[in-house]
Backbone:
């Protein structure tokens, strides 16, 4: 009898994934909204909230990386073509690079523009750069490009997950859902093997 391995991510990995997903969506939406606002106390307040959430996202992605090193993700389906496996691994690596680079670029930009980050208005974080207006403008562009790149990659990531769920009908998406069920298990239970169906009764 073949022993089935656990196809799901661990509960902490699932929790971190979805917490970061909602946080990043909120950060991206807030960034677009406040960028168009005229300079005012309300805009500066939104910038502070944005930076606090960005620092939180940075800490969460570091925690997620530490957890991933000690708890490797479940293997991809054996039937998946090797090029798709390579693309999946490459996409995940790039996602992590961007999730680290984006808050760092925001921190650098804030430092160069002369706005110190005070986490939740209590904990002052050190400026990573001295005040430099031109560098601050450049880093703002870098921050924007990185965010747009992450948004495009997330769309591709979601599209690939839905393709696996709706077309390939494998476990790639369900293993990251909080209450996902294993599809292969149920299909194997319902469908008898050819050997079983051809075995004559005695």
Residues:
């Amino acid at each position: 009898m073949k022993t089935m391995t656990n196809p799901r991510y661990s509960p902490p990995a699932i929790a971190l994934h979805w917490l970061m997903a909602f946080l990043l969506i909120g950060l991206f939406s807030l960034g677009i909204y406040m960028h168009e606002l005229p300079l005012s106390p309300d805009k500066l307040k939104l910038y502070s909230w944005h930076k606090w959430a960005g620092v939180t996202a940075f800490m969460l992605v570091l925690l997620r990386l530490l957890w991933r090193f000690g708890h490797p993700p479940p293997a991809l389906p054996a039937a998946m073509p090797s090029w798709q496996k390579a693309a999946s691994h490459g996409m995940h690596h790039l996602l992590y690079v961007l999730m680290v680079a984006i808050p760092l670029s925001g921190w650098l930009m804030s430092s160069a523009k002369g706005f110190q980050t005070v986490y939740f208005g209590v904990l002052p974080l050190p400026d990573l750069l001295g005040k430099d207006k031109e560098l601050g403008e450049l880093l703002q562009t870098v921050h924007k490009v990185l965010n747009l790149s992450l948004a495009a990659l997330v769309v591709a990531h979601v599209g690939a997950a839905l393709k696996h769920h709706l077309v390939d009908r494998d476990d790639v998406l369900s293993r990251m859902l909080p209450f996902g069920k294993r599809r292969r298990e149920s299909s194997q239970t319902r469908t008898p093997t050819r050997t079983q169906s051809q075995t004559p009764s005695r």
